[in-house]
Amino acid sequence: MIKIENLTKYYGDFRAVDNISFTVNDGEVLGFLGPNGAGKTTTLKMLTCFMPPTSGSIMYNDMNVRDHSMEIRRMIGYLPESAPLYEYMSIREYLDYICDLRNIRGPKRRERMDAMIETCGLTRMMGKDIGELSKGYRQRVGIAQALIHEPDVVILDEPTVGLDPNQIVEIRNLIKNVGREHTVILSTHILSEVEATCNRVVIVSSGEIVADGTTASLQERMADQITLSLEIRGDAAGMTEAYSSLEGVEKVHSVSAGNNGTVQLEIGVQRGCDIREAVFRRTVEKGWVILGMSQQKTNLEEVFRQLTLSQGAVVQ
Amino acid sequence: MTNVIPIFRREMFAYFYSPMAYIVLSVFMLLTGWFFTTQVFLADDSSLRSVFTTIPFIFIFFAPAITMRLISEERKSGTVELLVTMPLSDWDIVLGKYFAGLGLLVVALLFTLPYAITIIAFGTPDIGMMVTGYLGLVLMGAAYVSVGIFSSTVSKNQVVSFIIAFMIIFVLFLLDKFLPVMPSYLVPILQYLSIDYHYNNIGRGVIDTRDIMYYLSLIVFMLSLAKLSLESRKWS
Questions:
Q1: What's the burial of A196, exposed, middle or buried (CB within 10 Å: 0-12/13-18/19+)?
Q2: What's the Cα-to-Cα distance from B105 to each of A70, B21, B98, B198, B229, rounded to whole Å?
Q3: Is the ipTM of this complex over 0.90?
Q4: In which band, very low, low, confident or very high, does the pLDDT at B224 lie, cut at 50, 70 and 90?
Q5: How many CB pairs below 8 Å do chains A and B form together?
Q6: Is the alpha carbon torsion for B117, B123, B129, B133 positive or negative?
């Protein structure tokens, strides 16, 4: 079990990670989700003992990263962002080197290397230098490297960035298989990735946690949230205010101000409320005209967008 | 400490896998060969004196050239992130790379042994001077390489690393060349700090612990700086 408490990291004056706490249970596949620059990579760098936190603690079972760095590094497999590898080594030479560093010796070494080449689907590429491999295969070599010592915890930083759709599916399947035997923490900014591979998700935005739960519970929680899309002709400046005061409205997003004085609005509605009539009346009161109104259930993409946008866009 | 070996091995492998080692060694052989043959055949002097006086100059370029990529490249490509999250200490990394650089430098010196053998076979050289000459070269080279390793940790750019190493070495090398114009109270200090002064002492056939201590302390100092610089990721 990994326990992260009040973790904070400053780069100079910039607060990259702000007081986050969460736990990762054994055997979980945790998706660490957030837009670019949310502090995902920074958090992972602290988890892998690359750099210490400014404050807060990270505990692996009973071991703190400050005092037990070596032991923890032994039980972690890590794939940094963009899979940095040595270009001019062949796959076997590279894995051999990693075995040297990880102190895997004797018959065990051969066995683990063959197993990794098999699991990560590298057999066809064996003669090649890493520099000649495509992005997808480089990523696989990176994952092979992270798994070769049978770590308890596997940490993957954006493992599918820059891959084509077929490669993405292959890597996701690989991660799912890995997740059967190991605890996996993977970071991504792609929501469907979390849905496809993880059983738990932590969403971060500007260094803070905005959601934490199983993928199913998150979907459930958001499933009956309703968004009302409106197209209205009228005074754009007063609109957000006019509708947010209605009962049952959670948030008013203005999507865009169109031509000839029309405005597209999206209104987040609280659970179990139907505000369509109220919206109609308020519009009439203001002397505006409704050109279109439709009601949708929120999908996960939308949830993610709402959670990670710090504030609704302002009408221009 | 056992982790020094795999890093050393990988770096040696990398030298001889890329054209780097061959280019640097060829240039080294070309220069020393030219100085050796001109001395023996044109000046009619059967000693290694010219080789021993020119190699320190060649090393000023040679050491930064072989050390510049050792850590810079890992920082640039991002592989350093994997390396420092492996169960190794930062000393393992610094020492593994240091010994690899020193290894290549010693290989270069081994390639000059045919000169020594030629002289021994056809002349009557002072063998003792030869041995101390080589000892001086190894010590001096070891000090240069430690400067190179430190410089390599400073920048992601290999050219910048080269220039920093070159400048530090050049200053240490030049220190005792300005002694006549320096105030007299500075002379002993500058002399002691000069790399070349100690080399000349050893090359004269005198093995003094002061000279050896100088090189060892310079190496330890530079490698400690390299380790600190590698650790600096933890400070922000």
A1: middle
A2: 33, 10, 11, 19, 24
A3: no
A4: very high
A5: 60
A6: negative
What chain B residue is nearest to A99 in terms of C-alpha separation? B6
Q: Where are the beta strands (DSSP E) in A206-316?
A: 208-214, 226-233, 249-257, 262-269, 289-297
Count of positions (residues) in chain B: 236
Contacts of A76 in chain B (CB under 8 A): 85
pLDDT tens for each residue of A195-206: 888 888 888 888
Determine the length of chain A. Answer: 316
Asked if A18 and A56 count as a contact pair (C-beta separation under 8 A), the reply is no
Residue B122 CA, chain-centre distance (Å), reads 30
Cα angle: A138, vertex A143, A149; to 5 degrees: 135
Task: Assess contact for A195 and A215: CB atoms under 8 A.
Answer: yes
Helix/strand/coil for A274: coil
Q: Which residue has the tokens 């409704």?
A: A290
- Mutate which of B79, B86, B156, B232 to test chain A, going by most A C-beta atoms within 10 A? B86
Instruction: Mark residue A49 as left, alpha or beta (left: phi above 0; alpha: psi -120 to 50; beta: remaining).
Output: left
Residues of chain A with pLDDT under 70: 219-225, 297-303, 306, 309-316
Place of tokens 């998706």: A31
What residues have CB less than 8 Å from A284, skipping those under 6 apart?
none
Single-letter residue type at B199: Y
- Check A84 against B88: CB less than 8 A apart: no
Cβ-defined contact of B86 to A102 (cutoff 8 Å): yes
Secondary structure E strands in A55-160: 55-60, 63-64, 76-79, 153-157
HSE value, Cβ hemisphere, 13 Å, CA-based, for A220: 5
